[in-house]
Design brief:
The complex is a heterodimer of chains A (186) and B (347). Chain A is mainly alpha-helical and 186 residues long. Chain A is elongated. Chain A starts with 7 loop residues before the first helix and ends in a 22-residue tail after the last helix. In chain A, helix 2 (38-67) packs across helix 3 (78-108). Chain A has a two-stranded antiparallel ribbon. Chain A has helices spanning 8-31, 38-67, 78-108, 129-164; strands at residues 113-116, 119-121. In chain A, strand 1 and strand 2 (119-121) form a beta hairpin. Chain A has a single domain, classed as Up-down Bundle (Fumarate Reductase Cytochrome B subunit), CATH 1.20.950. With 347 residues, chain B is an alpha+beta fold. Chain B has a single domain, classed as Catalase HpII,  Chain A, domain 1, CATH 2.40.180.10. Chain B contains 8 helices and 10 strands. Chain B has helices at 8-28, 39-45, 142-153, 159-166, 170-179, 224-228, 234-245, 316-333; strands spanning 63-72, 88-98, 113-120, 126-132, 191-192, 197-200, 206-215, 248-256, 276-288, 309-311. In chain B, strands 1, 2, 3, 4, 5, 6, 7, 8, 9 and 10 form a 10-stranded antiparallel sheet that branches. Chain B is globular, with a radius of gyration of 23 Å. The relative contact order of chain B is 0.18. Classes of the chains: A mainly alpha (186), B alpha+beta (347). The interface between A and B is large, with 39 and 50 residues.
Chain lengths: 186, 347
């Protein structure tokens, strides 16, 4: 049986995480660019939201292994198929790595990792100026890489939806499309 | 059959959406507004005559570590549910410092001294604070501190007077600097947190407070002319010798605002009759030089607070937290410029 769309739980997770991750990236660059009280407010959101994303991506990977993914259109050129596959692996990788880097970077700096007043996580690496520099640089660079990848992902999704109109966007559409009169090209 | 459509309009739409998203991101990050006072720009302002103190804190560059205890009286529990105010003995880690970005600052000529510490409770919560021995902050807002810092590190002799002319509140600091007695020891200073924080008690009631450390030692005034003749690092030598013989102590007091007292401006002290509670005793039991000391690789970020203490409408803790983080990111990346003492070397 060939599935024509992602499972509802996968779509829900995709769009929920899309909102969280985009918010996270904007909060991240905003909070390090201001000295106003907004700085503390944004940081107090950034930390628990990052851990929430880490938990959600675990659930999402389980869903992915459980439900798989619909096949890409047969007529999609091989380089585009390859790009789709690799960019999705990179997106999953960054979703896992970014929160861990943030957590590790605070641990290496000896900061308590406070999610909410009175609730904190244990350090995951020892205090170390060297590790802090490594993780901080990685967290920052990969954040820009993640944002670039998200823009690419967005452009590709809209390209499928508006230019190729090949049914790929529909597989992950936020609300299910009405049943088409004709089956999408296979 | 759907009509074949030109891909031109959809491609334009995609370019606009992606380009607009990238522009929004760039704006949020401050890349399109170079005049924004970002933490990075603020940190750039802290420089001595030879430039920034590479590998060191960007401000209060010169300092020395200590360890000791905070012994809570329990009296603070009525104001804050923070664990640190329940009776007990909690480990403390801190730093004495000279309030200057110049690592080569001569102790005897520096008017403002600082003391910072971190108290940890067994539940893993931390309270970090960095205080100075001035009874009020020289300016009212972080932006003014930036301007004053730029003026005082510019090397232009007219810059600070020009700032002072535009900010009459600085005159009070000037008067304090001229008239307040100098002492010969970090242990004889009173240190003030200056910023207002909110204590939340067990019932959820909130109390705006400011805190101070009152020295157990009687301050002995020393004429500044005499201090200027001492060793450039006499404060560090003195506190090492003193604490080697016996611990140095401070009473920690918390002053509670009356209803209606402003809480946003650390330049404005509260009237002297405000209720003051002694919440504990800070004991400095051991001094450790900074290169290998435990205070070297942490920040005394005033926004690191236990449950039961939070920031108020005072804008300084946020600004300080942001700029301390930049200072930390820079100095840890520059650690090779500030070597640890080689193993086996004499301290």
């Amino acid at each position: 049986m060939t599935r024509t769309s992602f499972a509802p739980v996968q779509r829900t997770l995709h769009w929920l995480m899309a909102v969280c991750i985009v918010a996270m990236l904007f909060i991240g660059v905003a909070m390090v660019a201001t000295i106003s009280p907004l700085h503390l407010t944004l940081i107090s959101i950034h930390k628990p939201l990052g851990i929430a994303i880490l938990l959600l991506v675990v659930v999402r990977l389980i869903a992915r292994f459980r439900y798989g993914a619909p096949a890409l259109p047969a007529d999609l050129p091989v380089p585009m198929k390859l790009a789709a596959g690799l960019s999705h692996i990179a997106l999953y990788g960054l979703m896992i790595v970014m929160p861990l880097l943030g957590w590790a970077m605070l641990s290496a700096a000896g900061y308590p990792v406070v999610l909410y007043p009175g609730i904190h996580l244990p350090p995951i690496v020892p205090q170390s100026d060297h590790l802090h520099t490594l993780f901080w640089n990685a967290h920052q660079l990969l954040a820009f890489a993640l944002f670039a990848l998200i823009l690419l992902h967005l452009a590709a999704a809209l390209f499928h939806a508006w230019v190729r109109r090949d049914g790929v966007f529909r597989t992950m559409a936020p609300v299910p499309y009405r049943q088409q009169q004709t089956a999408p090209a296979e | 059959m759907p009509q074949p459509r030109s891909p031109f309009l959809p491609l334009i739409a995609i370019a606009v959406i992606v380009g607009g998203s990238a522009a929004a991101f760039a704006y949020t990050a401050g890349w399109l507004t170079p005049d924004r006072l970002t933490p990075n720009r603020f940190a750039d302002a802290f420089r001595g005559p030879q430039g920034p103190a590479i590998g060191h804190r960007r401000n209060h560059a010169k300092g020395i570590c200590f360890t000791g205890t905070f012994e809570s009286t329990g009296a603070g529990s009525a104001l804050s549910k923070a664990k640190v105010f329940t009776p007990g003995l909690y480990p403390i880690l801190g730093r004495f410092s000279i309030a200057n970005p110049d690592l080569a600052a001569v102790d005897g000529t520096q008017r403002v001294r600082g003391m910072a510490f971190r108290v940890a409770t067994p539940d893993g919560q931390e309270w970090r604070t960095a205080m100075i021995d001035v009874p009020f902050f020289p300016v009212s807002r972080p932006e003014e501190l930036y301007e004053l810092t730029v003026a005082s590190t510019s090397g232009d002799p007219k810059a600070v007077p020009a700032f002072a002319a535009a900010h009459p509140e600085l005159a009070r600091f000037g008067a304090w600097a001229k008239t307040a007695p100098w002492t010969g020891s970090y242990a004889e200073e009173r240190y003030n947190g200056l910023n207002t924080f909110i204590f939340t008690d067990g019932t959820g009631a909130e109390h705006p407070v400011r805190w101070s450390l009152l020295p157990a030692e009687q301050p002995v005034p020393v004429p500044p002319d005499e201090l200027a003749k001492r060793d450039p690092s006499f404060l560090e030598q003195e506190i090492q010798q003193r604490v080697a013989n016996h611990p140095a102590r401070w009473a920690m007091t918390v002053t509670v605002a009356n209803p209606g007292d402003q809480t946003a401006d650390p330049n404005q002290p509260w009237p002297a009759d405000r209720r003051t509670v002694t919440v504990g005793t800070v004991t400095v039991a051991q001094i450790e030089p900074e290169p290998d000391g435990p205070c070297r690789d942490i920040t005394f970020d005033p926004a690191v607070l236990p449950d039961g203490i939070k920031t108020s409408d005072d804008p300084f803790p946020s600004a300080r937290s942001a700029v301390y983080a930049v200072s930390y990111d820079r100095r840890t990346a520059e650690a090779s410029a500030y070597p640890h003492t080689p193993a086996g070397a004499k301290p």
